[in-house]
Amino acid sequence: MMNLKNKKKIVLITLGTLSIIPLPLAAACTNTNTKPQTPPNDPPAANPPANSNPGKREIVPGVSVDITAYPSNVIYLSLYYLHRVEYIKTVNKKDFPYIGESKQILEKLLEVEKTNDEVINNGISFINDFKKYAENDPNGKNFESDYIDSAASRNDKKYQVYLDYLINLNYKFREIQNGAPKPNNHIKLIKHYWNLLKPTRHDFWSLFYIKGLIEEYINLKENDMKTVEELKKVLPDLENAIAMKQALAPAKIANINLIIEPLKE
Q1: pTM of the model
Q2: Sequence-ordered alpha helix ranges (H) in the chain
Q3: CA-CA to 92 of 20 to 30 Å: which in 98, 144, 183, 235?
Q4: 186: number of Cβ within 10 Å
Q5: CA–CA distance, 154 with 241 (Å, rounded to integer)
């Protein structure tokens, strides 16, 4: 992975899909003892999907999170999307609707990922400060600037350990080299991630990443239109589960299987 230590730029644009920022790990969480390297710039944003609405959303009450049966790479990929993509898409950061669930995921992850406690504890500090900021606690007033500094690797870099780790994992999963994703591998990634979800409950928080991959594929004009139309059928079920903070129903999972499994890489 390239090191652009002196070339990092602050990303202040609204990001619509996964290529916006490098996606997390697949096999990377098998090496959680390694100190995260300084990541390169996030890849540029693709055009956001037509139905993208980064504005204020109706807040659904928080729900209990169970990470049992989820592979650790799915958990980290989901945290990547929540805290590097969804966070940036949210115009008013205080309206970010997944603070409670993020905190639960990180705290439960800490119980099972003992060898990665430095990263996870930094993530818990991040989400605790985010919560204070959202609640107008004076102790959280610097959260947004601390986030930007951490992402840009400057000043105190308060959350850099956590954010860099997620970025590096995303690069590995996406097979990003020299700042660019490997061409024509979206279907491979979609199928791989969907297969990782098979033993799980398909909870809403685990669906962000695959939704982003599908949106990215749909928005690339050079992609096969028949495949694009098939994948468009998947999005409403993913979007509804996320909006309602619910797991996918078994019937929905079966329908999505019928669409994704036959796709040719």
Answers
A1: 0.79
A2: 72-80, 87-89, 99-112, 117-134, 143-152, 160-174, 186-196, 208-219, 225-232, 235-244, 250-260
A3: 235
A4: 24
A5: 37
Longest Cα pair distance anywhere in the chain, in angstroms? 53
Burial class (CB in 10 A: 0-12, 13-18, 19+), 200: middle
Dihedral sign (CA 252, 257, 262, 265): positive
- Lowest pLDDT segment from 156-160, 173-177, 188-192, 193-197: 173-177
Nearest one of 164, 219, 159, 216 to 190, comparing CA atoms? 216
CA pair distance 106, 113, nearest whole angstrom: 10
Radius of gyration of the chain (CA): 17
In the block, which residue shows the tokens 């644009």?
13
Phi and psi torsions of 58, nearest 5°: -65, 130
Say how far apart CA 67 and CA 70 lie, in whole Å: 6
